[in-house]
Amino acid sequence: MRRAAFLLVALAATGLVRAEEYFVPMVGQKQGQDGAWWNTEVWVSNTSTITGGYAAVFLPAGQPNLDGLRAEPVLSDIAPGETIYRNDLVPEGGVGVLRFVTTPGIVVFTRVFNAAGRGSFGQGMPALLKSAATHAGDVAQLLGLRRTPQFRTNISLFNPSTEGGFVHVRVFTQRGDLAGEESYHLAPGGYLQLDDALHSFGVSRGEHLRAEVTGTVAFFAFASVIDTRSGAPTLVPAVH
């Protein structure tokens, strides 16, 4: 076991730290619509004054990921103040979620971008604590969604728990009319990405739409509004 991994175990045993896992949904390394090629970059930084450690586990879309949620990976050392850059954590052809296990003081930030496009920085997202998920029975709102000749919207749903359940998505027009609704099953650790989601809810063209998401289990919900001219995605986090 590396020194960082030993440190995490030792601190947890003494009760000085409560280990929490982190997640970054909506990562990919694959061909997309309109000639896009989605890439994922990750920065891991040790903000503490002692050697720390981190490990990443990729949870693929479209399948249960119970083993990935329960895995206890060996941590890689990271020196005090050091930042490590990774672009190899998502396998080629993969879409899904990155799960991070870290020692205290480690922060993680990711960028998902279209390498074949003419966009700018792309979609940035920090790693999120499991406790930041929307609780079962609560409502997450995704605002500012659109489907036009210039923009399309993807919706991403992730279940970070070890129990399966359902999420229900309702899409509303700017006037508050219900455009469509659908329920989706999410396996333990399951990730679902709805590409060009508004079209599947009966919206052929529209702006300023809202999606309302509820679940029988804890979940993360996000949207990406993609500029079809440049291929640049913009993150739409949930509000409550």
Question: What does this molecule look like?
Answer:
This protein is mostly beta strands and 240 residues long. The protein folds into 2 domains: 3-132, Hypothetical Protein Tm1070, Chain: A (Sandwich), CATH 2.60.290.11; 140-237, Hypothetical Protein Tm1070, Chain: A (Sandwich). Helix content is 9%, strand content 50%. It has helices at 3-14, 66-70, 197-200, and strands at 22-31, 37-46, 52-60, 76-78, 83-86, 94-102, 106-114, 123-126, 128-129, 140-147, 151-158, 165-172, 178-186, 191-194, 206-215, 220-227, 233-237. Strands 1, 2, 3, 4, 5, 6, 7, 8 and 9 form a 9-stranded antiparallel beta sheet that branches. A hairpin with a 5-residue loop joins strand 12 (165-172) and strand 13 (178-186). The protein starts with a helix and ends with a strand.
Summarize the structure.
The chain is mostly beta strands.
Helix and strand arrangement:
Elements: H1 3-14, E1 22-31, E2 37-46, E3 52-60, H2 66-70, E4 76-78, E5 83-86, E6 94-102, E7 106-114, E8 123-126, E9 128-129, E10 140-147, E11 151-158, E12 165-172, E13 178-186, E14 191-194, H3 197-200, E15 206-215, E16 220-227, E17 233-237
Antiparallel strand pairs: 1-2, 1-6, 1-9, 2-5, 2-7, 3-4, 3-6, 7-8, 10-15, 11-14, 11-16, 12-13, 12-15, 16-17
The gross shape turns out to be globular
Estimated helix fraction: under 10%
Q: What is the domain total for the residues?
A: 2
CATH level-four homologous superfamily name of the largest domain: TM1070-like
* Sheet with the most strands, sense and barrel status: 9 strands, antiparallel
β-strand number: 17
CATH architecture of the largest domain: Sandwich
| Category from helices, strands and their pairing | mainly beta
User: How much of the polypeptide forms β-strand, as a percent range?
Assistant: over 45%
